[in-house]
Structure formats: structure tokens, C-alpha cells
Amino acid sequence: MILARNFRVKGGELDLVCRDGKTTVFVEVRRRARAEFGGAAASITAAKQKRLILAARHWLARHGEGPCRFDCVLIEGDRLEWIKDAFRLD
Q: Between the CA of residue 71 and those of 36, 50, what are the distances in Å?
């Protein structure tokens, strides 16, 4: 179930906030036309992860703590890959 789209706070944004059972899922969607320069996965750098974590902490503070995970949806050309639990909050 999608709870929010483009949730923004100063310093970060979450593309999608979803619910999977009792788990809040923060989904980062990255699209690249080609896999050059590392493709969509390489664009989720450590700095980008920090911004996602910052926004997730704001979401959790407003809506209640609980189990959560970060998923990434990577789109390159016509190929789509969904990576569950791509990285951790800690």
C-alpha cells in the first residue's frame, strides 16, 4: 500500500513511502536511459543514502516508529529491478 509520494523535508526526499504488513518501506526510484557511468544503482551514493535516511527519520518521528526498510527500484531502459532491503537505517 502506498502511504505517500515525494515526501520532502529540508535535506531529503522519499520517492515513495509504502506499507508491507507492519513494515514501513521507503522506496527510492532511479531511472537511467542506459547503464553507462554505473547505471541507476551507482547513482544511489552514500550521500544520497544519508539524505534518504534523514527523510525517513522525519517520517518515522511524525507517523510512529516501527520496523522499516529501504528498497530501491532501478529502471534502465526497459529493464526494471526491485531491490528489497537495499540498505539499512543504522
A: 22, 14
To the question of pTM greater than 0.70 for the whole model, the response is yes
Please tell me the distance from the alpha carbon of residue 73 to that of residue 30, in angstroms, as a whole number. 6
Cα 24 to Cα 89: distance, rounded to the nearest angstrom: 12
Of 87, 81, 82, which Cα lies nearest the Cα of 50? Answer: 87
Structural contact between residues 17 and 2, judged by C-beta atoms closer than 8 angstroms: yes
33 vs 63 pLDDT, higher one: 63
CA dist 35 → 21, 28, 53, 75, 80 (Å): 33, 17, 25, 10, 12
Can you tell me which residue has the cell 527523510? 55
Q: What whole-number distance in Å separates Cα of residue 21 and Cα of residue 78?
A: 29
For the chain, what's the residue count? 90
Q: What are the grid coordinates assigned to 58, written together?
A: 522525519
